[in-house]
Amino acid sequence: MKRILCMALCLMLVMALAAPAMAAEPEIIFTSGSKFEAGGTVKVDEGETLLSTYNNGTSDIYNAYLDGNVQYYWMRNGEYYADGPSLKLKESDKGCEFYCMAALYSDADHTQQCGTIYSRKFTVPGGSNTASIPDITTKSIPNGKVGEYYYQKLECTDPDVTYSLFRSSLPDGLTLTQHGEIEGTPTKAGFWYVVVMATPEAGADYASTAEYEITIEEGQQYTMEIMEVPNKVTYTAGEKLDMTGLWVRIYTPDGFIDSRNGKYLTYSTKALTTVGEQKIKLTYEDAVEFFIVTVKEAPPEDTEPTETDPTETVPPETDPTENVTEEDTDPTEEETSKRSKRDRDRNAEDSGDSDSLMLVIVCILAFVSIAAVTALIVVLIKQKKK
User: Fold this and answer.
1) pLDDT in tens, 18-74
2) Which secondary structure element, helix H or strand E, spans residue 259, and what is its range?
3) Which residues touch 47 (CB under 8 Å, ≥6 apart)?
4) What is the model's pTM?
5) Domains plus CATH for the chain?
6) What Cα–Cα distance (Å) separates residue 381 from each residue in 103, 372, 376, 377, 378?
7) Residue 184, CA distances (Å) to 123, 150, 152, 225 in order
């Protein structure tokens, strides 16, 4: 009994360890009548494939296949070759390796992919294929922003290939040229899965494909347009900006607003010092715009003496010794007498003033002496009475 229990436990352990390896993926099954040789046809058995998605796939994959939301692609030597549920093999396919892949979508428009399933690989017997398949060497492309110009050049080992989109689309506003240039201005944010095909020549039955993912982010929310520049656009070095007359229209997600005379805007209020043309930057949120002003040199300060007006008459300086006659230097007797009389009168006046001053001084001294004597007499009389 113990031996049986041990064997049962060992069997259960082996089955538990082997379970992950035994898990199968859904796959594309070919019909029993498929011929894997040049001239033969390989066809997908949709009934068996549906059963495989039911047994091994998710509910999304099974429902997509059941609803017929599927696209078949045949790959030769790892590159896209043809599409559809069946493939006719050619002589040129000898020695090439093939497999089929099916892209499953959750909607009838084939815009929301929910999974991919593959067939087993097979090789067409009969020799080796020497066709040169081009290789797109650009492995990824950058993301972009709404409203910003986008450009990306794809590179390939064969420079003469023609590029095209394969069962996919680029973001709104972008286009792919036949020379491999993705360019334009995105108009919508979102995520895109893009497949690009490079064909070496017209009518070739082989091509190279490359898969890319690109995300377009929300771009600038605000933009500006200068409707009218300020009234003053010429300045002297050292002056500050005058925004009078400036009219800017600001476009917002909800419409637009008008800015007059710099209202709502951010700009430099420092003095203009650089001589020449200058770009004045205006900003509002993430919007930026510019206009041009001209700055001239300031005039130099006037430190030199003012020049004399040549029409102004300046009287000549007079020499005190000029135009002096002998009559001026030799006074007459009458003049001498008058001068002597004036001197005597002046001396008399000075003498009278001195006498008056002396008289005042004498009177003051006499008054003081009398007061002193009187005070002395009063003191003596008081002592005698005692």
Assistant:
1) 444 445 789 999 998 899 998 999 999 999 999 999 999 899 999 999 999 999 999
2) strand 255-260
3) none
4) 0.38
5) 24-123 (2.60.40), 144-217 (2.60.40.10), 223-296 (2.60.40.3630)
6) 156, 15, 9, 6, 5
7) 42, 5, 10, 22
